[in-house]
Amino acid sequence: MKGVNNLKPNIVLIMVDQMRADCMSIEDHPVVDTPNIDQLARQGIRFSNAYAATPTCVPARASIMTGMSQTKTGRVGYQEKVEWNYEHTLAGELVKSGYHTQAIGKMHVYPARNLCGFHNVVLHDGYLHYNRKKHENLELESFNLTGDDYLPWLKSKAGSSSDLIDIGLDCNASTVARPWHLPESLHPTNWVVSESIDFLRRRDPGKPFFLKMSFVRPHPPFDPPQAFYDMYKDLDLPVPPVGDWVSREDIDREGLNPVTLKGNVPDQRFKRAQAAYYALITQIDYQIGRFKNAMEEYGVLDNTVIMFVSDHGELLGDHCYFRKALPYQGSVRVPFILSDPGDLLQLHQNEKINNPVELRDIMPTLLDIANVPVPDTVDGQSVLSLCKGNNKWRKYIHGEHAYGKLSHHYLTDGKEKYIWYSQTGEEQLFNLQNDSKELENLSSKEKNRLTYWRHILIKELTGREEGYTDGEQLFIGKEPKNILNNHNFSSSK
């Protein structure tokens, strides 16, 4: 590995929240424009079959920060207020190796101010429900219930009454949108980059740095600045795919609920949300360009490796579903780019790798780049080996999510996908090579392939505390858990 000085390479992990993998120009999306993200990919490697095994914020971020699978972290569903006491974290291992570490933006850990191994956290988690409940937090200052750093800054700039809910959009509403009501410079996306640029100014120049720059958007609320919304509001936007296996019935008119999971949303309402979602991605893209310019000004761009990734996707109307957690491509497939502007790693740039990778692979990859030992608690693998032609990579990804009646498990190798709904027994099989939009359920036609994947799932679930299988067959209706009892949260485990 070559470098421009005798320090280890700097590392920037750019995380976005709820961004679909297909919403990039380089993925040939028909309307979304992402020139700076495209350039990150052109200066590195794009992993086209990257997945979130447990596609909601908390469990996904646990795998990113620990390198562990969802069964090792114990987080197989979404549950807040579960302490993060992992023995080994990405930032903690880099600190041990002499890195100056900084997190800016979203963490979504518990307690909210948990450092998770970083030297410092400048925090904005968005609307953190459990800390926003004033009737349960009377002992805290009402102006800053979350310990959030963005909110008091916003109040100092826009007025003491300014808050996240002023715009009238729910933080989980994927079907409604409106433009940001304040100057663009006050938007949380711009704030994350402003704080990140300030870190370049105040970092320790005698150490390599690790910066986790974590955006809350394009997670709802869908509130892009007007200039970005205007880029998309009048375009002919793509129609979401709806499979032949989908019921379009919406007797209770759930589509009228702004935070619906499924339903028939009024066309104009949905088009505004779709345009705003795309606009938020382009806003992030432009701010990444702003940060890269600052890196050049501070002379660190060519000695920095950049990883760009999302914690999960957004269904955005696919198969009449919204939000995330479900096993379909819009929800589980994520952007995953390893960019090397200074050619420090001497990889073949502007290439695409199709092997299945997962969020747990981030920690071992970045430790590998820093030449730091990977703890034996880590389940993931360094994707650098893939870049160098490793032919012993994993064959598939096992994903899952406890989700009430929609609790499920999925398996994919990037070519096929098998889904089992644990509460109903419904099985689905998709040929992703011929049907990337998952329009045709092949479970009744491809019995041999269905049996093949079912046996793999039985193997994966054998011994699980929920009792999903006896090693011979799958059992329907076993109660799913958000948190496994045999988790690995602390060093005492």
Give the end-to-end Cα distance, rounded to a whole number of Å.
37 Å
Radius of gyration from CA coordinates: 22 Å
Q: Which structural class fits the helix and strand makeup?
A: alpha/beta
Q: Major sheet: size, sense and barrel closure?
A: 8 strands, mixed
**Tally of helical segments:** 13
As residue ranges, the low-confidence spans are: 489-493
Query: What is the average per-residue confidence, as pLDDT, rounded to a whole number?
Result: 94
Strand order of the largest sheet: 5-4-6-1-7-8-2-9
What is the third-level CATH name, the topology?
Alkaline Phosphatase, subunit A
- The CATH homologous superfamily is named Alkaline Phosphatase, subunit A
What is the overall silhouette?
globular
CATH-derived architecture:
3-Layer(aba) Sandwich
Strand element count? 14
Spell out the helices and strands N to C.
EHEEHHHEEHHHEHHEHEEEHHEEEEH
Total separate domains: 1
Proportion of residues in extended strands: 5-15%
What share of residues is helical?
25-40%
GO molecular function, one term: arylsulfatase activity
Domain Sulfatase N-terminal: 9-372
Keywords: Hydrolase, Metal-binding
Family: Belongs to the sulfatase family.
